[in-house]
Design brief:
By secondary structure, the chain is of the alpha/beta class. The chain is built from ten helices and nine strands. Helix 2 runs antiparallel to helix 3 and helix 5 packs antiparallel against helix 7. The longest helix has 21 residues, at 140-160.
């Protein structure tokens, strides 16, 4: 939650300045607990967020570590303090992994690096474009690009670890414009799924089959389903369902079945629950087995383009 480029800092969640003394911090925490407690009409997801914020800054030791890692202290963080926003390094293990094509988060990272260099350095190369003290001050449109890239990369790691029975295509083009894409197309024994990896920087909810909230822009679920339909028509395949993956702390429950949205079975899934959902499938989604899985994989390999 708090390691997202879009998320509020622990201090912002508690409603204090980073320089607040310990007494002010403690009073703010108790106030925010009362304000967000579900028993008094508060929001359960925000209540959890407040508790997590206190865990991060509630003791001098934790607070010092948090300040170093998030750019709130006097000294800039070093690479040893912070590495979570940089592009992931190549893996060294040799375990069987899912078949994978495309670059997860690749387009969003390219856009982020271009824009943050234009914004902060006027095109000049920056020593570290992922410096959290720099990123936190960037316009929300730039931070959103990095958050999207990180979310897509996190999903890619989870799917890769499911093994060779799974095939995944990342950053799949789903229209004429490069930004019309499906983050991941996953072919599993439990079905064929289109996946949207999101990190909106805070708790979200749904209304009438769509994500809503202060940080939600546009119609992400509708856009995902529209992209899936474009791919399905081109490849002559049938998707079993749509999955929206969100950070664990942004959902009250790990899996929320939305039923059919625009005719497609759709689920909101916390990131740590994604592997189980892909293994078990969305209820009602047709399974794919035998020769069919090879036929579907062949059609997708022959048809899919990357954004």
């Amino acid at each position: 939650m708090f390691d997202s480029p879009l998320s509020a800092s622990a201090y912002e969640v508690l409603g204090v300045e980073p320089a607040a003394d310990d007494d002010v911090l403690r009073k703010a925490y108790r106030l925010r607990l009362r304000q967000t407690h579900p028993d008094t009409g508060g929001d359960a997801a925000l209540f959890i967020q407040v508790q997590r914020a206190w865990e991060l800054v509630g003791t001098p030791e934790a607070r010092a570590a948090y300040d170093r890692g998030h750019g709130f202290g006097a000294a800039a963080p070093t690479a040893a303090d912070w590495s979570g926003w940089h592009a992931p390094a190549a893996r060294a293990d040799t375990r069987p992994r899912a078949r994978s094509s495309g670059q997860p988060g690749g387009r969003r990272r390219e856009q982020f690096l271009t824009l943050i260099r234009e914004w902060a350095g006027r095109g000049v190369d920056l020593p570290d474009p992922y410096d959290p003290a720099l990123v936190r001050t960037a316009p929300v449109e730039i931070r959103r690009l990095l958050a999207d890239a990180l979310a897509e990369e996190a999903t890619a790691r989870i799917v890769a670890d499911l093994g060779m029975g799974y095939t995944v295509w990342h950053d799949v083009a789903a229209g004429r414009h490069p930004d019309e894409k499906v983050d991941h197309v996953v072919l599993a024994p439990s079905g064929l799924y289109g996946i949207l990896s999101e990190d909106l920087g805070g708790p979200v909810r749904t209304r009438r089959g769509e994500l809503v909230g202060d940080t939600v822009a546009g119609t992400p679920i509708a856009d995902l389903i529209a992209g899936m339909r474009t791919i399905a028509r081109a490849a002559h395949v049938r998707f079993g369902g749509a999955i929206v993956v969100l950070p664990d702390d942004d959902l009250v429950q790990p899996v929320e079945q939305l039923g059919k949205v625009r005719g497609v079975r759709t689920a909101l899934v916390a990131r740590s629950s994604l592997a189980n959902v892909l293994r078990q499938g969305i209820p009602g989604a047709p399974e794919i087995g035998g020769n069919e899985i090879f036929d579907v994989r062949t059609r997708l390999n022959q048809t899919l383009r990357f954004a």
